[in-house]
Design goal:
By secondary structure, the protein is mostly helical. 58% of the residues lie in helices and 4% in strands. It is built from four helices and two strands, in the order αααββα.
Length: 93
């Protein structure tokens, strides 16, 4: 699994976004040129996490429990990588 330490100059959630798409952060940035897809993806992940976990709430438009979210997202992307390495799954949004 890619860790924050491997790409210290990048936002950890962006590293996970790139990893979920089978790329390094730089490859992802080079292929997209903007952050629109990332912003949509990370918002979708927050919504999914909130729907699946009542400990994540929205207060005044801001999500709570960032540590839980980061652990949840890391686990999700790790599992996705394991499936992709076995040729079982494509990109799961």
């Amino acid at each position: 699994m890619t860790t924050q330490c491997e790409y210290p100059q990048w936002n950890y959630r962006y590293v996970l976004y790139a990893k979920a798409h089978g790329k390094t952060p730089q490859e992802m940035m080079d292929s997209e040129k903007d952050m629109v897809n990332y912003m949509c993806w990370i918002n979708d992940q927050w919504c999914l996490c909130r729907d699946l976990n009542p400990d994540v709430e929205v207060h005044n438009g801001s999500y709570s429990n960032h540590e839980f979210f980061d652990a949840w997202l890391t686990d999700k992307v790790t599992r996705l990588g394991a499936l992709q390495s076995r040729g079982v799954a494509g990109i799961i949004q």
